[in-house]
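Following the same procedure, backbone shapes were mapped to integers, yielding the entry below.
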Amino acid sequence: MTVTWEELGWERIAAGVGRCRLPGWDCTVGLVIGGDAALMVDAGSGPAEGARLRTEARALAGRAVTHLALTHPHFDHVFGAAAFADAEVFGAAGVERVLAEEREALRRDAIGNGLHARVADEAVAALTLPRHLVPDEWTLPLGDDRQALLVNVGPGHTAHDLAVLVPGSPAVVFCGDLVEQSGEPQAGPDAVPALWPAALDRLLSLGGEDALYVPGHGAVVDAGFVRAQRDALATRFGVS
């Protein structure tokens, strides 16, 4: 029996494209379904959450997740990645160093933000590194004339920000935490504020005026929202 996006608590954004807002940190994960493949965008905040997403994605796509794109190396987006060990994992070039060499910092950040220490320990021990590193752009065929474009748009929110463009009518852009709707964009110690507005300019050039933009946290927005947030960040950080 076919299951609908809504039955599993997901939001359908376009044909074969949806997202789920996760509890706790209101983090978004995305799913893009093609004729031959299924792409997950981000993986949640822990092994159990990742496993639940894997099960739900399989029910929606009718197949296992074949590809996983990690938008940036923060715990609420990557700590569930071990659940997708059989998938081809992608990230912006350089993100593999953060995930390999800064695990204790990731663990401390997760616990400091309220993740249970046991969950953080399990996630760090099983953390999956991207095997495919995107220096600029990577076209990912998904079957039935569907494709996704993975774009290294950072630095900005972090030094290694990856966006995912799904062409169509409308086009959909998964922005990671370069865009946030449910609160002011968070600039932690790994942010690169001077380059963040330029990263948003690139997002807008990818999606265009009619695209739907999916923030890392919050509701789906339009180009006008992204442009306004870009200008607010430029003012906040004193850059053009």
Notes: The helical segments are 47-61, 75-78, 95-101, 103-112, 117-125, 196-207, 223-237.
